[in-house]
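ARCHIVE ENTRY
Sequence with per-residue tokens
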Amino acid sequence: MFSRSMSTLVSTLIAALGLAAASSASAAGPQSQPEAYVGANIGLYSKYDISCSAGQKCDKTANFGGKVYGGMMYEQWGVEAMAFGTGRGEGTLKLGGKDAQGSVKMGGLGVVGVLPLNFGDFTLKGRLGAAYTHGTANYKSGASESKNSIAPLFGAGLSYAFSKQVSLTADLDHISAKYNKAGDKAAVNMFSIGASYKF
């Protein structure tokens, strides 16, 4: 069911990107040339906001994460779609309204508006939007639960234009997701680095 929902959301995001590009080009006139780009980042450091109980194993730093993304950039703003995964963190979660030891991970799709500030070859970007997330909790007791939800997605990034097409990127994204049927949620800050290619 999640894969079908993800496919639907991907189609919607692609259509939204195309519509945004067409409407902006029409409104801005022939002088404005939007730039399309794609990229991929590897998560170097991701930290969950879950708690730790005394005497229990706790590792709030996710073991792996990353994202792939693509977008359209205009003169003063842009729109970007991404698919992401944050890796697994371990600590104290909620199960049936009570504390329970376990691990949590999340992934999903997001779309954000982008505000760029250019400083020569460097560009600072602010991002704000929403994500369709899939959170999963695996408890020490052997139980597991998952939940799909929509959550805010925001972050910032810094890129350096290595050439006219290729930029090196460093991003910090704040992502949250519900992970069980009761709607309990966790959040993670993911720092990632990678590269993007401008068409």
